DNA sequence: GTTGAACTTAACGTTAACGTAAATGGTATA
DNA sequence: TATACCATTTACGTTAACGTTAAGTTCAAC
C-alpha cells in the first residue's frame, strides 16, 4: 500500500527515534509487514502505536501496555473470556483511581509549601536590608 | 541517642530492604550519623526518608526528589534564592497538573472500553448458544 | 550505474534503582 | 568467650527501555 508509512515517518509522527519503533516490534507491540525487507506500517499499526504511546504517557510499563493492547485485540469469543477481560479492565481502573487520589494529595501538599514560601517572600520584601 | 533507629528498623518501617536505605545514603538523600560504624537515623532522617518515599509513590525519580528535598532544606537566605526556589516549585506544580489531566483522560477512555465490553457481555448472555 | 540517504540485522553499551554475594567487624546473650 | 545475629564496605549482577556502532542492503536521484 502506498499509504503505509516507513519507519522514519512513524518515528517522526510520534517524535521518537526509529530505534524505539524497532524495539516495539522486537517485544511484540506491533507487527508491521515488509516490502523488500523494509518495514511498512498500516493504519492499524499506527493505531496500535498510538495506544502504546498513550499508555506510556500515563506511566505504564511496556509489558503492561502489551497486556492492555491484547485486551483490545481480543475478539473474546466466549463469555468467560469476556469476563476475564473485564476483570482486568476494572483492576486497571482502580489503579488509575488510586493514582489520581495520590496525585491530588501531592498537589495539595505542594500548594501549601508554595504558600509558605510566598509568605516568606512577602515578609522579606517588606523588610529593609 | 537511644531513640535513633538502626538501619533494619528503618527498612522495616518503610517496608523496603536495608539495601534501599544504604543506596539512598549513597546518592545523598539522607545522612545518618554513625555510632561505632553503625548507621543511626534521627527523627530528621526519618522525616527526609518519608518525603523520599512519598515522592517515589508519586512517580518521581530519585534525582528529582533530591532536588525537591533540597528546596525544603534550604533556608533560602536571600530573596533571589527564594524566588528561584518558588519558580521550581511552580514548575513542579504545573507538571502535576498535567499528569492529573492525562490520568483523567485515561480514566474516561478506559471507562468507555469497559462499557463497550459490558454491552457485549449483556448481548451474549441474552443470546442462546 | 553510481552515489548517498534511508533501511536492515546483530550485538554491545547505558542508566536507574536496587539485588546479591563476599569478606569482615560489632553486639547480645547464655 | 563462644555463638548467633546484625552491621559494615566493596563490588559485581539485573531489568527496562532504549542508544550506539558496525556491516551490509535498498531506494531515489542524477
From TrEMBL, chains A, B:
<keyword id="KW-0678">Repressor</keyword>
<keyword id="KW-0238">DNA-binding</keyword>
<dbReference type="InterPro" id="IPR000551">
    <property type="entry name" value="MerR-type_HTH_dom"/>
</dbReference>
<dbReference type="InterPro" id="IPR009061">
    <property type="entry name" value="DNA-bd_dom_put_sf"/>
</dbReference>
<feature type="domain" description="HTH merR-type">
    <location>
        <begin position="4"/>
        <end position="71"/>
    </location>
</feature>
<dbReference type="GO" id="GO:0003677">
    <property type="term" value="F:DNA binding"/>
</dbReference>
<dbReference type="GO" id="GO:0003700">
    <property type="term" value="F:DNA-binding transcription factor activity"/>
</dbReference>
<protein>
    <submittedName>
        <fullName>DNA-binding transcriptional regulator, MerR family</fullName>
    </submittedName>
</protein>
<dbReference type="InterPro" id="IPR047057">
    <property type="entry name" value="MerR_fam"/>
</dbReference>
<keyword id="KW-0804">Transcription</keyword>
<dbReference type="Pfam" id="PF13411">
    <property type="entry name" value="MerR_1"/>
</dbReference>
<keyword id="KW-0805">Transcription regulation</keyword>
Amino acid at each position: 500500500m502506498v499509504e503505509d508509512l516507513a519507519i522514519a515517518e512513524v518515528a517522526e509522527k510520534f517524535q521518537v527515534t526509529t530505534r524505539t519503533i524497532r524495539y516495539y516490534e522486537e517485544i511484540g507491540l506491533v507487527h508491521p509487514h515488509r516490502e523488500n525487507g523494509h518495514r511498512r506500517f498500516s493504519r492499524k499499526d499506527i493505531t496500535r502505536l498510538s495506544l502504546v504511546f498513550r499508555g506510556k504517557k500515563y506511566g505504564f510499563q511496556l509489558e503492561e501496555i502489551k497486556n492492555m493492547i491484547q485486551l483490545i485485540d481480543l475478539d473474546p469469543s466466549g463469555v468467560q473470556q469476556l469476563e476475564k477481560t473485564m476483570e482486568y479492565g476494572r483492576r486497571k481502573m482502580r489503579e488509575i483511581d488510586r493514582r489520581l487520589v495520590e496525585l491530588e494529595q501531592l498537589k495539595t501538599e505542594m500548594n501549601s509549601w508554595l504558600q509558605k514560601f510566598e509568605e516568606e517572600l512577602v515578609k522579606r520584601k517588606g523588610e529593609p536590608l
